[in-house]
Design a protein that fits this description.
This protein has 245 residues and is mainly β. Helices cover 13% and strands 48% of the residues. The protein has two helices and 15 strands. The N and C termini lie far apart (52 Å). This is 3-keto-disaccharide hydrolase domain-containing protein. Keywords: Signal. It comes from Prosthecobacter debontii.
Length: 245
């Protein structure tokens, strides 16, 4: 009986760890606090219906662009997909409005293998946004991914300044796991277990939304956001990470 109880306890423990690991992918800089967003796309989304005032609209929930400005979005079978419109060749953008400063963003993304229709490349980004502009991002394409500071102090000439780059083939029509950690003036971007980190004062601003940008066509699923606290192991983790960058 004792052996059975011990085996059962071990089984339950492993089951809990397995379930947790499926929901919470490893983090380097942060630990997860309160869950802010848990979106499985199992139901049709209700778009933001207030009065938009640009980046500073202060909206909550989902907002996405529409024809003819550019981009079509649809939810089906737990997947949220955005497609550029051929009329304007403008990336499809969708934003989730939630106030935050330090967060862990986790999702799965996919670049869909659809005809380019004259476009030069495919891409996909996960961005944080404050009241003035984009703040920092993970950008993906078929050649790999990079993390960026997305604006030169809000209004400068240099957009999307790279903070780090990892070159590895990212196949079309395959799901890629993303963990996006933002804490203070630093960020960590992890795609399929490969991580990059970068620092800039702009990253520490108060932010109001998370944006997905799909070049040609891309999809997202299992979107979650947590409040973030400092991981006590970050100094050690960062030292190891910097060795490999």
């Amino acid at each position: 009986m004792m052996k059975f109880a011990s085996a059962l306890g071990l089984f339950l423990c492993l089951s809990v760890l397995s379930a947790r690991s499926a929901d919470e992918l490893p983090t380097l800089m942060t630990t997860r606090g309160k869950l802010l967003v848990d979106q499985d796309f199992s139901q049709p989304l209700k778009p933001f219906d207030g009065v938009s005032k640009g980046f500073a609209s202060g909206f909550s929930g989902w907002r996405w662009n529409a024809v003819p400005r550019g981009g079509k979005w649809a939810v089906e079978n737990g997947v949220f997909t955005g497609r550029e419109t051929t009329e304007v060749k403008h990336p499809a953008t969708a934003s989730y409005g939630v106030l935050f400063k330090n967060v862990v963003i986790q999702c799965e993304v996919r670049m869909n293998n659809v005809p380019l229709d004259g476009r030069k490349y495919r891409s996909l980004s996960v961005r944080t946004v404050d009241a003035k502009d984009y703040v920092c991002s993970i950008h993906m394409n078929e050649g790999g991914f990079r993390i960026t500071k997305d604006d030169n102090d809000h209004g400068g000439p240099d957009k999307s300044v790279p903070l780090g780059e990892f070159k590895t083939p990212l196949k079309l029509d395959e799901w890629h796991t993303v963990v996006f950690e933002v804490l203070g003036e630093e960020m960590v971007g992890t795609v399929d277990g490969h991580s990059l980190t970068g620092t800039h004062p702009l990253i520490g601003t108060d932010k109001h939304s998370i944006m997905f940008v799909m070049g040609v066509e891309g999809s997202v699923r299992h979107f979650k956001v947590w409040e973030a606290q400092l991981n006590p192991e970050w100094a050690k983790n960062k030292a190891k990470l910097m060795e490999t960058e």
